User: Fold this.
Amino acid sequence: MLRACGGAALPAEFPPGRRCSRAASQPLAATSAPLRVRLRLLVRAPTASRAAFARGAHCFPPSSLSLPVPRKGWTRPGQRLRGRMFTSKSNSVSPSPSLEQADADALDISTKVQLYGVLWKRPFGRSSAKWSRRFFIIKESFLLYYSESEKKSFETNKYFNIHPKGVIPLGGCLVEAREEPSMPYAMKISHQDFHGNVLLAAESEFEQTQWLEMLQESGKVTWKNAQLGEAMIKSLEAQGLQLAKEKQEYLDKLMEETEELCLQREQREELERLNQVLEAEKQQFEEVVQELRVEQEQIKRELELTARCLKGVEQEKKELRHLTESLQHTLEELSIEKKKTLEMLEEDKNQPQPLTNESEQPLASDGLHSNLRQIEERMQELLAEKLLAEKRMKENEERSRALEEEREFYSSQSQALQNSLQELTAEKQQAERELKAEVKVRMDLERRLREAEAALRSLEQGLNSKVRNKEKEERMRADVSHLKKFFEECIRNAELEAKMPVIMKNSVYIHKAATRRIKSCRFHRRRSSTSWNDMKPSQSFMTSQLEANNIEELKEVATRLSRDQRFRESIYHIMAAQPGASALPRGGK
Assistant:
């Protein structure tokens, strides 16, 4: 079993005072934190030096150190340095002490050190107040000291001697400033495995600060730290490879998502263009609806006017019918009176008259003939008026039929316009609902895209970050799950989103077809209206002033003929005066 003595691995069966005096070589592994370079230190202690270490000297004798030299240049972390261990004139180094003593000048090492200089040193093995000047060098995690004269040789040749007076391992040591009675800038180096403390002193405060900092930094290099550093390096390399692989996968996904976003952006531009077309169609649609409503109001007014005209024609037909009946009744009465008059004339001709009345007979006969002519004239007038009334009745019937057909036509056109308005209103509402749903879906898609982009940015920052902790890993897992969910939703909605432009185009074509149908309906309606206007007579919806005057005159004539009592009295007077002479004086009168 080995126990750590500072930075050196030493046998555990030796007592503390003689632990460092083993003749066999033991490797010392140390790793510098920024460089992570493994060094191998071969420590050999001759038998003659064991007594000195048995007295409590915790340092290596001059002949006990054999330091390896790494190759020039930096190496990969965790790579073991191999090759020539020393820079010397001989091709090989013998482990014998005699050869080391003989070739002491040839085994100098030319390498870099962390710090060197002259310090005051108090004896380590015994309690003494005497201070002596020594030349100290800090090499990796070891403090080497020589006689003061070695400084000149080191500064001249830039080699440090591999046979120092002593070596102090600094790994895990506690270095702190201390004031001594004669040395105000003293430093104490202590370790739990040291038998006593190492006291050094500088000439000035600046040198003390410089040595303290370098000693404390060198004390961080230990065997445990080296093992931990190597394990951490391997773990970090594995994590780096895994993170690089994951980063590449996420970059591939990011590229795919970027392409998908570009495609969605193009689809969104296409949808915006279609929305603009739909807005223009909607504006035209509203204008067409407004025109249809105006035309519907106009047709409604025309229907009302047609209905009033129909009522007037019906009233006129009734009056003409009454007038015709009255004229027919008057003609019948006149026919009866004419027949009676003719019978009376026949009786007068056949009946012999006395001589005294010969002078009055021609007068009575002339009166009867005159009355007969008046009756015939009146009958002809009444027949002419009857024919005129029948003609007017036929014209009114034709007008009534035309107005009825026109009313039916306008009713059908109004119903067609009403149906078109209802269809257009339903299509408008459907288009608005589709637009609202499409805008809502697009806003939701943009929101999810923003969330996915934020998750991607957060994930990329987490992957590029060198510091990793549990919170960041949890956040990265949440981002990954969010992206996975987003990708799944994109896959589910891909087909619908791909078909959305086709649906919008179809809706546009539907609105265009509806507009064309409305325009065609309006054209046919105007054409039919024009044909009806060409077919019907002028002023079909109202009678002229002349026709109204004729109707009024006809009514007055019919009323006068039906109430002509003088004509009837004269006829009755003639008929009553013919049989007897008593009526002659009245007739003469």
About this structure: The chain has a mean pLDDT of 69. The first helix runs from residue 50 to 54. The radius of gyration is 69 Å.
